[in-house]
């Protein structure tokens, strides 16, 4: 019993000392980052992130400010760039709720393994956010565009990609860890989906532009981009994207058009179930004494 | 534990100096032959209290006698009847008696026989017992030159009628509850179990209160080890007074330092009867409608009588109570842990909402939760203790000031109000109030753990709690059985109440000798009809 008392007293002493100095953070102190983007400009990394303004999102406050704030910083390393962001945000960025990682096309063409390496290793990040490439734009551009239907762009991009890959099949939701697994496996090269900006980027920044029933600027998913190792080498067209997804078994549901009998009109077929099997065969072909 | 040691020392000291009780004041040990001597002894012992009635009369012509009783405790009707009978014995005197001019044995026997309308009549030679009997409402008849007092059982004081239970309600089931009267309570049990095997052992505890208690059990079913343990622990009690069953409970329970109760109480005769049929032992204490039942295991605190009175499908509802146990215990701490340590566990949209609510709230989540929980506990205490007339005022203050105004003033977030409400509602789900009290206390511990170590702290806390629960015993029976030592057959009445055809045996750990409850009636019934 004496020992137990000692233990309890010690415990009670320890509790007030420990409290607050560990990694406890109150909710209102969080700068929740919902989407991140990385560009490589002139050898320096530019880290862009969208931070949610919770009070603008809550129902009882009718604010005029945007629900998200995009901030960016450049640095020689990505790590430096995102730490530098604390000079702009209210607190250290909170990355656990990141839904998408956008990478600029140019950067993607140069190779992204180093970028992914940092994001995978850092403990602030989860590895379940989706990876997309900004087609013809920088990641910064994509993250500077507001969205409709879901006012949080990160969420919108996540949901739109999930639903389009599930129901149309020309896109593919590739989380970071899947991309890296594809990158690391032998004989396999990763792919990812391209995100497009329709309209002028500059106009996508203002809430007022979204009062229109048909906003001029929107984010939209394109087709798959093919990588060779960690470098983007080109974009597939819609048919190729769907074909690729069929081949690897990514199609959950899609729509195929086929001409009717006697070429009278076109018939749409909804694919509801697919099954793909990939097998490798090594064939010996006799071709003048050479192995293929 | 130096505190306990010093306490036990102190109690020893007080024992030596303790107040005079009946044993110490009574210098006279035996009832004497002289009536006057007896009466003066009674007077010195009971003092000049004006409710002590001494009524002198004569049996035969010259034999002096006196009735001693306490006004208000003795039943007037049976008393008058008794006096009438006694005075009638005057006219029926024999010539021999007159000649002898003394009270013969025959006439005393006659007196006793005539007094049969009273019920119980006995001779008591011990002066202490005589006093004790008078104090419990019996009437003592003292007769000149007769060395014992005739005690007539005339107990009958103002008592409450059997009414509906006020704290342990059911929708379907008996609507009677125990009263403050021990005899009424034993009769209520006897009414339910008309078994010759039922045993009611009486004891008197409390140097000053001389409270009657009764240990009730069914001889052929009860666990003898538990019974011996109960007797042993009750015999060790040394206290000046027993005013409620909690006095006994605290003195015989296995662990005083455990937050968990190891004795269950009930004000329902049906619950006590069910416990007796399981082989458990009931302790009835005079002066309180709450009867103690031992052994009480963890699962017993989640069993409502209604589980057995509704069709067996209702037995599924019991899971809710276990769920409520955990929600009453853990919801505030989980909220604290998740919002201050593990924000990644919250879905993004919810996180944004929560963060928006917390904006502008000056306190950390832990302090916020603490404020709300403590305020609620204060409200609850106020609700129990306030005079009924101002009940509405308190509920208005509680609902408006605490709920709405606190949120609007930005002191607490709306979610915290929900969290506290869930906790509060959950803690009212338990059929046994004792368990709710322990959960209330433990909740604050878990909140502190959550605020310092997050979910890690909560799991450590749960682990320690589980260890503690598994180490507890209630009168020798492991507290967590049938989970602690796993017993598969007893699972039938643990988390769920299984259909009655499966409840064919008594709980194994409580009862090992007489286990069969019923034959499989259902099987037979089905065959005959098909």
TrEMBL record, chain A:
Pfam families: Spore_GerAC, Spore_GerAC_N. Keywords: Germination, Lipoprotein, Membrane, Palmitate, Signal. Gene3D superfamilies: Nutrient germinant receptor protein C, domain 1 (6.20.190.10). Residues 225-283 form the Spore germination GerAC-like C-terminal domain. Residues 23-193 form the Spore germination protein N-terminal domain. Its main location: membrane. GO terms for cellular component: membrane. One of its GO terms (biological process) is spore germination. It is found in: Membrane. It is a lipid-anchor. Belongs to the GerABKC lipoprotein family. This is Ger(X)C family spore germination protein. It comes from Filobacillus milosensis.
UniProtKB/TrEMBL annotation, chain B:
It is a multi-pass membrane protein. One of its GO terms (cellular component) is plasma membrane. Residues 1-16 have a biased composition (Basic residues). It is found in: Cell membrane; Membrane. GO terms for biological process: spore germination. Its main location: membrane. Residues 1-26 are annotated as: Disordered. Keywords: Membrane, Transmembrane, Transmembrane helix. This is Spore germination protein.
């Amino acid at each position: 019993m004496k020992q137990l008392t000692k233990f309890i007293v010690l415990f009670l002493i320890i509790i007030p000392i420990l409290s607050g100095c560990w990694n406890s953070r109150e909710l209102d102190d969080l700068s929740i980052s919902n989407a991140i983007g990385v560009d490589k400009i002139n050898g320096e990394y530019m880290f862009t992130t969208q931070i949610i303004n919770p009070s603008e999102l809550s129902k009882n406050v009718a604010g005029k400010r945007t629900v998200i704030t995009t901030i960016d910083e450049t640095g020689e390393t990505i790590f430096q760039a995102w730490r530098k962001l604390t000079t702009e945000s209210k607190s250290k960025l909170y990355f656990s709720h990141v839904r998408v990682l956008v990478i600029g096309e140019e950067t993607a063409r140069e190779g992204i393994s180093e970028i992914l390496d940092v994001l995978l290793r850092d403990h602030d990040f989860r590895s379940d956010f989706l990876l997309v490439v900004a087609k013809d734009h920088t990641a910064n551009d994509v993250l500077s565009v507001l969205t409709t239907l879901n006012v949080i762009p990160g969420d919108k991009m996540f949901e739109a990609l999930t639903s389009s890959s599930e129901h149309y099949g020309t896109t593919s939701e590739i989380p970071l860890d899947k991309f890296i697994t594809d990158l690391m496996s032998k004989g396999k090269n990763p792919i990812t989906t391209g995100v497009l900006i329709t309209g002028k980027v500059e106009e996508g920044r203002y809430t007022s532009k979204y009062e229109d029933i048909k906003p001029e600027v929107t984010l939209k998913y394109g087709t798959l981009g093919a990588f060779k190792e960690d470098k983007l080498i080109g974009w597939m067209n819609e048919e190729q994207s769907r074909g690729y997804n069929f081949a690897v078994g990514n199609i959950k549901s899609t729509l195929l058009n086929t001409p009717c009998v006697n070429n009278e009109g076109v018939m749409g077929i909804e694919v509801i179930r697919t099954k793909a099997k990939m097998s490798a065969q090594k064939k010996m072909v006799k071709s003048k004494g050479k192995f293929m | 534990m130096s505190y306990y040691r010093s306490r036990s020392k102190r109690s020893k000291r007080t024992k030596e100096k303790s107040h005079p009780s009946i044993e110490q004041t009574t210098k006279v040990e035996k009832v004497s032959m002289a009536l006057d001597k007896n009466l003066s002894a009674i007077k010195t012992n009971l003092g000049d209290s004006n409710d002590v009635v001494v009524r002198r009369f004569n049996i035969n012509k010259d034999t002096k006698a006196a009735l001693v009783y306490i006004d208000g405790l003795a039943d007037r009707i049976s008393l008058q009847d008794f006096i009438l009978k006694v005075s009638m014995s005057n006219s029926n005197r024999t010539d021999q008696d007159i000649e002898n001019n003394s009270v013969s044995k025959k006439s005393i026997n006659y007196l006793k026989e005539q007094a049969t309308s009273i019920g119980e009549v006995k001779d008591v030679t011990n002066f202490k017992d005589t006093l004790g009997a008078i104090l419990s409402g019996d009437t003592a008849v003292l007769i000149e030159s007769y060395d014992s007092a005739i005690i007539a059982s005339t107990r009958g004081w103002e008592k409450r009628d059997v009414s509906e239970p006020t704290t342990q309600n059911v929708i379907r089931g008996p609507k009677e509850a125990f009263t403050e009267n021990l005899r009424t309570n034993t009769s209520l049990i006897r009414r339910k179990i008309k078994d010759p095997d039922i045993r009611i052992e009486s004891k008197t505890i409390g140097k000053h209160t001389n409270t009657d208690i009764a240990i009730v059990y069914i001889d052929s079913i009860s666990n003898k080890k538990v019974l011996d343990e109960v007797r042993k622990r009750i015999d060790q009690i040394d206290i000046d007074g027993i005013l409620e069953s909690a006095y006994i409970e605290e003195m015989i329970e296995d662990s005083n330092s455990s937050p968990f109760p190891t004795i269950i109480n009930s004000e329902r005769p049906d619950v006590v009867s069910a416990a007796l049929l399981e082989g458990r032992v009931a302790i009835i204490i005079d002066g309180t409608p709450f009867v103690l039942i031992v052994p009480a295991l963890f699962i017993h605190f989640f069993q409502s009588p209604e589980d057995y009175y509704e069709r067996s499908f209702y037995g599924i509802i019991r899971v809710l109570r276990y769920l409520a146990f955990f929600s009453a215990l853990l919801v505030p701490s989980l909220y604290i842990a998740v919002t201050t340590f593990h924000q990644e566990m919250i879905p993004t949209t919810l996180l944004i909402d929560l963060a928006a609510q917390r904006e502008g709230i000056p306190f950390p989540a832990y302090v916020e939760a603490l404020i709300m929980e403590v305020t609620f506990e204060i409200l609850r205490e106020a609700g129990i203790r306030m005079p009924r007339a101002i009940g509405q005022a308190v509920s208005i203050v509680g609902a408006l000031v605490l709920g709405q105004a606190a949120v609007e003033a930005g002191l607490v977030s709306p979610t915290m109000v929900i969290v506290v409400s869930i906790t509060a509602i959950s803690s009212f789900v338990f059929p046994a109030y004792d368990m709710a009290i322990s959960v209330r206390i433990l909740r604050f511990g878990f909140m502190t753990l959550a605020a310092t170590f997050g979910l890690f702290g909560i799991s450590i806390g749960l682990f320690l709690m589980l260890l503690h629960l598994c180490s507890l015993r209630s009168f020798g029976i492991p507290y967590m059985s049938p989970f602690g030592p796993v017993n598969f057959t007893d699972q039938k009445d643990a988390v769920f109440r299984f259909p009655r055809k499966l409840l064919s045996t008594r709980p194994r750990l409580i009862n090992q000798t007489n286990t069969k409850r019923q034959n499989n009636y259902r099987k037979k019934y089905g065959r005959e009809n098909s």
